[in-house]
Amino acid sequence: MNITENLKQVLNELPEGVRLVAVSKFHPNKAIEEAYRAGQRVFGESKVQEMTAKHESLPKDIEWHFIGHLQTNKIKYIVPYVALIHGIDSYKLLAEVDKQAGKVGRTVNCLLQLHIAREETKFGFSFDECREMLASGEWKLFQNIRICGLMGMATNTDNAEQIKTEFCSLRNFFREVKDKWFSESEAFKELSMGMSHDYREAIATGSTLIRVGSKIFGDRNY
Ligand SMILES: *Cc1c(COP(=O)(O)O)cnc(C)c1O
């Protein structure tokens, strides 16, 4: 596996305005260091303990993105340093991030995760749940979080049309939410979608943040 080459290949495909989150979960520090030496600064992790250990031992100018399912009792470990939490999938979680972020005096960047895939197992709000949550208005009182956009995962399939349809539905929902609730917000601009097998479709449908792991670092050993 040549991490530097793989990374450059992906970066070369990125149009302006699209950023790469290099998903380094389950890979050792030395893999991250190689990507770092090649210029990559944004890394994604899905386990709190693993990300925190890596944050402590690796260069401080790395932007750590949390892309996994976040448990409320673990928020406190990441709020001091996390650059973006991609997977906010309930009002309760948002409220808890706000509370914990307040304790450390930070404003934490968050994305709302939408369930767009056919699989039952993937986390996220349905479009209607998200509309309801936003319509309640309670989130507007939070002072320690910043909602920067939306995140979603397409169905794990080879059917490119299916994937595109799902990404389009999220992009359209992004526009709806932006117009209705965030037209005045400069921060609300991120659409996190696309992984190793579907980032090209994601870019074609308006992604601003792709989350690519195995294509850069190779297969993970779970
Ligand atoms: C693991 C993971 C990725 C990266 O997946 P690859 O197929 O290795 O690119 C992207 N997003 C999320 C939410 C993940 O958990």
From TrEMBL:
<dbReference type="InterPro" id="IPR011078">
    <property type="entry name" value="PyrdxlP_homeostasis"/>
</dbReference>
<dbReference type="InterPro" id="IPR029066">
    <property type="entry name" value="PLP-binding_barrel"/>
</dbReference>
<comment type="function">
    <text>Pyridoxal 5'-phosphate (PLP)-binding protein, which is involved in PLP homeostasis.</text>
</comment>
<dbReference type="InterPro" id="IPR001608">
    <property type="entry name" value="Ala_racemase_N"/>
</dbReference>
<dbReference type="Pfam" id="PF01168">
    <property type="entry name" value="Ala_racemase_N"/>
</dbReference>
<protein>
    <recommendedName>
        <fullName>Pyridoxal phosphate homeostasis protein</fullName>
    </recommendedName>
</protein>
<dbReference type="GO" id="GO:0030170">
    <property type="term" value="F:pyridoxal phosphate binding"/>
</dbReference>
<feature type="domain" description="Alanine racemase N-terminal">
    <location>
        <begin position="2"/>
        <end position="220"/>
    </location>
</feature>
<keyword id="KW-0663">Pyridoxal phosphate</keyword>
<comment type="similarity">
    <text>Belongs to the pyridoxal phosphate-binding protein YggS/PROSC family.</text>
</comment>
<feature type="modified residue" description="N6-(pyridoxal phosphate)lysine">
    <location>
        <position position="25"/>
    </location>
</feature>
